[in-house]
Design a protein that fits this description.
It is built from 26 helices and 11 strands. By secondary structure, it is mainly α. It has 4 domains: about 60 residues, no CATH class; about 30 residues, no CATH class; about 230 residues, no CATH class; about 180 residues, no CATH class. A hairpin with a 5-residue loop joins strand 5 and strand 6. Helix 6 runs parallel beside helix 8, helix 11 packs across helix 12 and helix 14 crosses helix 16. The two termini are about 20 Å apart.
Length: about 600
């Protein structure tokens, strides 16, 4: 434990009163166990020029100790997109399970209405600035989705739900880098499915994902017709394959602890084959637009409706004449009978997948990797799988129970795990960006936190819903060459960590810290959000105090001695003699820059 202010040597006399005058603690004294203890000293320490005083009594009361703050900061780095200073202080005073329960009760902060409001506001700004209304976007584009995403995630109270939604967006992947570009409402509506179900039930979410037009367009079961053999038309197999491989059961049969089931030869047992894909593809036929937007060509939705006039916020509808009739033979002998309505086929299929024993360990490992660590032990996965299979009240797939199991597990919480070489994960670049923006004070001239993030995407390849493929930005089983692969461990995020992205990240950190630009837009009105370091400048009078503050905020108490020495040495070189009255400001900027590019910030332990 460290003190917020260094305590210089003081002659201290501890007077332990008897039980008559105070509480006796048989386990330990200190850290708040100080009733009936009086501390006297020859003096208290107050550094020159500081308002704060290091009181002798703080050696026993626990006041000023940072351990709880560090623990809360680390917890919030896993459970949210990054803790604000105020949030860290609040969470340090409560039980983590209680905090999770409180978060689960908060109503979801959804994106769609925010995106629509932002579009109207931005359009009006454009017109007020002299722009021709016909020259602005006809509907919300990807830029408006991004503006809305940042606005919600910088201001919403349901931070746990928003964190889980982002994790789910990297599992149940769609991307605006492909067929969904410029469909901002569709992107927001799809993301709302993830937000709404992030602490709900996985089966409900999987069904809504399957029926969302954004997913239908992305994985091509939108306007997917039944077989017409004489015309060589066959159902598209794209979604049928990915709903199994990437969204539910994976490629191979799993034990509850996530380990592979093998046959007598030690070969992993596949969960499905090509025949199964063809049967599943029959299920996802006959879907098209559930509603259309106002247009000049079509009055009602129908099978074959163009995506350009489809209302991307309404689930797809079933057009029975285009749905493949007959039996569908699915996994493990399960058969969908002939004669059912098409939507009944889909619901039965999603339930069939949801009940597969692979889903628990599959989802558990993906979420643990995204939120806590790249290499969870089989025991950790098994504990989370148990929560998925039964939330304690007989419900399967309760995501709130799953998330609680992930975040409260000993591997996530106990200090003994922090120094384990298999602990932690490389934070993907956008998570480092989100965390920094949430942790820092900011100035916004219009009170908005819109951000296009184009320069960040160009240099790191990442933004929400910007994955280059349905396989996300990186693979869960990626093993970077070197010590990680040599130990047969995984480092998914290292797949996008290369010379281009690592140098690109360093350059954008320079923009944030040295130039102060955190967020910006493509709008004609100046909406740039800038960094505010005014609260940090007074701390820079003593580099150690500033470093301790940033260690809590950014590295959760895990700043290494080597990194601390490097940062301290750099700050010591920035003096009044060199930079006059600006030296404290530059100390803060240099400290932030070095923290943000340090391995201790990049790796979440």
């Amino acid at each position: 434990m460290r003190y917020l202010l260094r305590f210089f040597a003081l002659p201290v006399l501890l007077l332990f009163y008897s039980a008559t005058f105070g509480q006796i603690y048989e386990d330990y004294v200190g850290g708040g166990h100080s009733d009936g203890v009086t501390v006297t000293a020859s003096s208290n320490y107050q550094p020159w020029g500081w308002e704060q005083v290091a009181l002798a009594e703080n050696t026993i009361t626990g006041k000023g100790l940072e351990g709880k703050l560090m623990e809360a900061s680390r917890f919030l780095a896993q459970a949210t997109l990054g803790g604000t200073p105020e949030m860290i202080r609040q969470v340090a005073e409560v039980d983590f399970e209680e905090w999770i329960d409180d978060q689960s009760e908060l109503p979801p902060t959804l994106l769609l209405d925010t995106v629509r409001d932002i579009f109207e506001r931005a359009r009006q700004w454009f017109i007020d600035d002299g722009g021709n209304p016909g020259d602005y976007a006809y509907w919300p584009y990807t830029q408006h989705f991004l503006y809305g995403w940042w606005q919600v995630n910088m201001t919403a109270d349901d931070v746990l739900r928003q964190r889980v939604a982002l994790a789910l967006s990297e599992i149940l992947v769609i991307s605006y880098s492909d067929a969904l570009d410029d469909f901002g409402e569709g992107q927001a509506s799809y993301y709302d499915v993830l937000i709404d179900n992030a602490l709900g039930n996985y089966e409900n979410m999987l069904l809504q994902v399957a029926l969302h037009p954004a997913m239908g367009i992305y994985l091509s079961h939108f306007n997917n017709p039944k077989a017409v053999p004489e015309e060589n038309i066959h159902p598209d197999e794209n979604f049928a394959r990915e709903v199994m491989q990437l969204f539910s059961i994976g490629l191979y049969k799993l034990n509850p602890d996530g380990t592979l089931q093998t046959d007598g030869n030690g070969t992993p047992v596949p969960t499905y084959d090509i025949y199964d894909i063809k049967e599943f593809a029959k299920v996802f036929t006959g879907l098209s637009a559930g509603a259309i937007i106002e247009n000049e060509w079509q009055d009602e939705p129908e099978f074959g409706t163009s995506k350009w006039i489809t209302d991307m916020t309404v689930p797809m509808a079933m057009y029975e004449e285009w749905h493949e009739q007959g039996e569908k033979h699915l996994l493990n002998g399960f058969v969908i009978p002939a004669g059912q309505a098409g939507m009944a086929d889909i619901e039965a299929t999603i339930h069939h997948l949801f009940m597969h024993p692979n889903v628990g360990p599959f989802v558990a490992r993906r979420l643990i990797q995204n939120m806590v660590k790249s290499n969870p032990t089989p025991a950790y996965i098994a504990r989370v799988t148990a929560a998925f299979n039964n939330n304690g009240q007989g419900e399967r797939g309760d995501m709130s129970a799953v998330v609680k199991a992930i975040l409260l597990d000993p591997e996530a919480r106990e200090c003994t795990w922090i120094n384990n070489p298999q602990q932690g994960k490389l934070r993907e670049p956008m998570m480092r960006y989100f965390h920094f923006c949430r942790a820092m004070d900011k100035n916004s001239p219009y009170g908005v936190y819109w951000n296009i993030g184009y320069d960040f995407w160009r240099k790191t390849g990442q933004l929400p819903l910007a994955s280059p493929s349905v396989f996300n930005f990186f693979l869960p089983d990626y093993q970077p060459v070197g010590p990680i692969a040599d130990q047969d461990l995984f480092g998914p995020e290292f797949q996008i960590h290369n010379s281009l992205t690592s140098l690109g990240y360093i350059n954008v950190v320079d923009d944030w810290v040295m130039w102060g630009v955190l967020m910006d837009t493509w709008e004609s009105v100046g909406t740039a959000v800038t960094l505010d370091i005014s609260q940090l400048i007074p701390l820079a009078k003593d580099p150690e105090v500033l470093i301790n503050k940033l260690d809590v905020l950014l590295t959760h108490g895990n700043l290494s001695a080597e990194a601390r020495f490097i940062i301290h040495t750099a700050l010591d070189q920035i003096t009044h003699d060199v930079l006059w009255s600006y030296y404290l400001e530059y100390r803060v900027k240099m400290a932030l820059y070095l923290f943000m590019i340090s391995p201790d910030y990049a790796v979440l332990k």
